[in-house]
Backbone:
């Protein structure tokens, strides 16, 4: 060795170092141990979904034959019975209904919301939907001067002096420059959720909320509010973005406006309902569960097609696709159709509580509740120790999704699977393209015709592929 | 140096090697020299497009006030005049019309295509559109037995004996398992393009072609055919996929079927038309051009909204967005709205010929002709020597698009910019999500309401960002 020329020594050392560097790199990938056979099975999963998927005809039935299905409604009851009957036909190891009590809010007669006596427009109606959970106005309705606010600061500055006896009009729009529309939604939905109580604190008698959407159109978007029990519950309605623009313009031009609103909504006693569950029992670790799901309830307008009929029928199809691809899972793979995501999350909470009680370890849970659009990726979440430890490993599987255009990120997962977080499993949210979602979200326009068959199927395939990999490699 | 312990020597060498490795890696990125200021300008471009874009209202006008615009039609004439008038308002350095003679094919009266005397269904109409360029059937129409073929091999095996005097029915579907639908289109469109002449060679008197789409519905999809001048030109029509399925089923059940078809289409003398062009003159190299475009013509049904009104209005907006972002380009940035992509490519050829004649080097050309859907990436093409040399460099810019969800691939670019390939510039095709495109392509359903505002705007922003980077860094 000592006779080697320095150049040769360097070369030798250089080569050795390269080997070290590349071996380290290889090891990272080896952790996930993704193989050619994984790629082949994933290809088979997509082929199945695209040529023999059931999610689209299932969603057609759920949308057109059952329709919307708010917790406690007959629609929800029918949806429970019908999805269970579909799972029953699939030759699963077990299908059952998990009882859960749910809030039962009803909209009542159609909302009347109008500007009265504008100089320019006279009296005109605005397209409106009461927010879910809102109290009604009483049979006579309410009428008051409107005060527009764009921020909490503005509200607080107006204070009782500016607000008492009035109707507060929240008109802060979603931020169009956010690329992921969920981020923009997150920056505006606080008005809908807590606007009523925050205005009531200053003596407001009602609120109007600009619909939480980037689209400028005439669809009002409902969605849940949360009352602060320390103040009076006042009625709250969403108005369409076009109505909001018109009202805002009128306030600028005329200085003031009077709005009449009448809603007949009320909260009835809690009602019995169910999560709908089906599973394929694991061959090696049947006590460990990988759950995949969406929420079966929807708002009481439209079909609830994207929100979240899509996620439900995709989750059902995940089990069917894995069966058809001839895959026998090591862990128990469970499809869960959660009840009451929209106005209570009772189904998600009940499911997690039961799992806890039975000691069913949830290795992973995957939720599809962002629409049935073209797949873009998965986001991964979990208890901090879990996600910190496993995200890197999960990332080694990401290249398997490259041919299908999906990427992995860290981020939120899904409302229904959130309560499982304490069980230290991995949580994942399926992330389809987000551009069209909030055009339809919680409106009469969220109908079956807005769903593209292939996009829905590609989502089911992507979820099945992830479930397969999680089952094969564990955490 | 000679007293150093071997371990220290190794460490020194290891460190040196790492420095070499990482420097090499850095250099690759340094070639593209993407900087924070690039990221900031690109952010500005997206912000502009999403809050102050014009592509959507422009497309609305083009779709609803002008409508479809096949080469030689009054629609095409109006589209030329109107898009020029819009470019004229933009304060560009130059706007002009580039004359080009185009084919002038007309559909004539509505197609009649029906199965006659089925045992099961009796006589029934099929939704059909003559293929672009097809000859008409004559006033009496034609009637003959139908023979279904799924492949060229099947056609050749049937031969004259099985085909003479008959109507050939091409029924090979697009392959649903392809993730990018353009690949599936490429595997089926040969039936539409050369089916008529290949059947005529064996004595067929007409052809029916299953619409080239993955959707199962009742929209027939037109599109151009190419006649082989060595054989008789026979009439060819596309039938909807549902009609194709019904006819195919009937042939299986009943053994045979007779079809009557009547079309009134004809080829008129060539007509004068124009490419519509506007440019911002480059500050440093005004003789070098970066072109961005789409095609202004469309088929003679629907609005030609996705194909390719979207690409035209996005290309116009690219110039406007760059102006509004305060960017002064080094090279000349030119928006080109090509005439006659659909049935002749005369505009693309004329444009390249003129550029050649004037010695205008086209550093790059970017085309948007795959619909106005959510952005997924760009594909890059060019003369072999060019693309081999520059793709690696281009890839160093890809990370700048990560926040917007775009990736770079090698592949085709666009039909209209293809003739520029010989000029040794870079060609790029904007690649939006492909799942919905062929549901609408060349049909009466390709209408403005199918376009999502944000998806269109995000496309314009993505194109503007790419044009900016190509302008800044050259090749």
Residues:
């Amino acid at each position: 060795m000592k006779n080697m020329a320095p150049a040769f020594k360097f070369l030798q050392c250089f080569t050795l170092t390269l080997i070290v560097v590349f071996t380290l790199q290889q090891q990272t990938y080896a952790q996930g141990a993704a193989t050619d056979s994984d790629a082949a099975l994933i290809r088979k999963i997509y082929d199945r979904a695209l040529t023999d998927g059931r999610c689209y005809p299932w969603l057609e039935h759920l949308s057109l034959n059952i329709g919307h299905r708010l917790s406690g409604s007959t629609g929800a009851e029918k949806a429970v019975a019908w999805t269970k009957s579909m799972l029953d036909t699939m030759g699963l190891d077990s299908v059952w209904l998990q009882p859960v009590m749910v809030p039962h809010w009803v909209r009542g007669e159609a909302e009347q919301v109008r500007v009265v006596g504008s100089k320019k427009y006279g009296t005109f109606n605005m397209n409106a939907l009461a927010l879910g959970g809102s109290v009604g106005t009483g049979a006579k309705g309410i009428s008051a001067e409107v005060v527009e606010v764009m921020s909490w600061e503005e509200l607080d500055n107006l204070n009782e002096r500016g607000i008492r006896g009035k109707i507060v009009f929240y008109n802060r729009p979603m931020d169009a420059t956010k690329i992921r529309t969920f981020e923009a939604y997150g920056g505006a939905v606080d008005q809908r959720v807590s606007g009523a109580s925050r205005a009531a604190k200053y003596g407001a008698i009602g609120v109007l909320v600009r619909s939480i959407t980037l689209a400028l159109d005439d669809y009002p978007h409902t969605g849940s509010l949360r009352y602060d029990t320390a103040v009076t519950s006042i009625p709250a309605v969403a108005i369409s973005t076009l109505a909001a623009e018109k009202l805002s313009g009128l306030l600028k031009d005329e200085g003031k406006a009077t709005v009449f609103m009448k809603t007949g909504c009320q909260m009835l006693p809690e009602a019995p309902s169910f999560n709908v569950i089906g599973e394929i029992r694991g061959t090696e670790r049947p006590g460990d569960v990988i759950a995949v799901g969406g929420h079966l309830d929807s708002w009481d307008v439209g079909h609830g097609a994207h929100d979240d009929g899509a996620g439900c029928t995709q989750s059902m199809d995940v089990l069917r696709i894995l069966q058809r691809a001839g895959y026998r899972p090591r862990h128990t793979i469970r499809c869960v159709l959660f009840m009451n995501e929209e106005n209570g999350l009772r189904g998600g909470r009940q499911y997690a509580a039961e799992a806890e009680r039975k000691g069913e370890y949830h290795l992973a849970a995957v939720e599809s509740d962002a629409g049935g659009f073209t797949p873009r990726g998965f986001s991964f979440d979990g208890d901090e120790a879990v996600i910190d430890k496993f995200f890197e490993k999960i990332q080694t599987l990401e290249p398997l999704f490259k041919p299908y255009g999906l990427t992995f990120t860290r981020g939120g997962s899904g409302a229904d699977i959130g309560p499982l977080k304490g069980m230290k499993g991995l949580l994942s949210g399926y992330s389809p393209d987000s551009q069209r979602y909030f055009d339809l979200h919680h409106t009469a326009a969220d109908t079956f015709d807005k769903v593209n068959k292939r996009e829905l199927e590609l989502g089911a395939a992507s979820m099945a592929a992830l479930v397969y990999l999680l089952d094969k490699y564990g955490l």
Observations:
- The longest helix of chain A spans residues 6-32.
- Residues 16-32 of chain A have pLDDT under 50 and may be disordered.
- The first strand of chain A starts at residue 94 and ends at 106.
- Chain A has two domains: 34-104+269-473, 108-264.
